[in-house]
Amino acid sequence: MLPALIKSTISLFIIVDPFGNIPIFIGLTERMSSEERRRIFHMATISGLILLLLFAVAGREILNIFRISLESFMIAGGILLLIIAIRILIAGGWEESVTPESIGVVPIAVPLLVGPGAITTTILNLQEFGEVVTIFSVVIVFTIVWLTLRYIEPIYKILGKNGAVIIARVMALLIAAIAIQYILSGLKSWG
Q: By three-state DSSP, how is residue 154 classified?
C-alpha cells in the first residue's frame, strides 16, 4: 500500500502544484491584509479538499451520470491541463479579474488547485489504487497545500521572485508532460 500511496500522492501533488502557484497566489492577494489573505487561503484549501474528496469517492459515478468515458475525460483533462501549462510557461501566470469575496473559491481553489488535471488524476488514482489510497493522497496533498498557504509569505521571501518563477516554470513543464501522457493514454485506451 505504501508504494501506491507514494505514487498517488506525488502525481497529485505535481498537478495541484502549490509551490509553483505561489507567485500567482501572492499576485491575486497582494492588496489584501494578512488576515484577509489567511481567510481566503483557508477557504480555498477547504473548498479544494472537499471537491477532490468528492471525486475520490464518487468520481466514476459522476462521469457515469453524464455518460462520459474515463478516456474522454483523460483527453479533455489533458488538453485543458496542457493549455494551463502553456499559459504559465508563456504568460508566466494566471490572470483573471475576480472580487475579493470569491477569490478563495475561484480562481484559487478552482481551477488553480483543483482543475481538470487534479480531478483527472484523482479519478485515475481511484481507478488504479482504490478508494482508500486515493482519499489518503488527497488529504496528504491538501495538508501540504494548507501548510504552503499558511506560510506563503516566508516561503515566498526564501524563494524570492526569481526562485518562485523558476519553480513555477519547471512545474509547468512537468504538468505539460503529464498532460501529454493523459492525452496519449486516453487515445490509446479509446482506440
A: helix
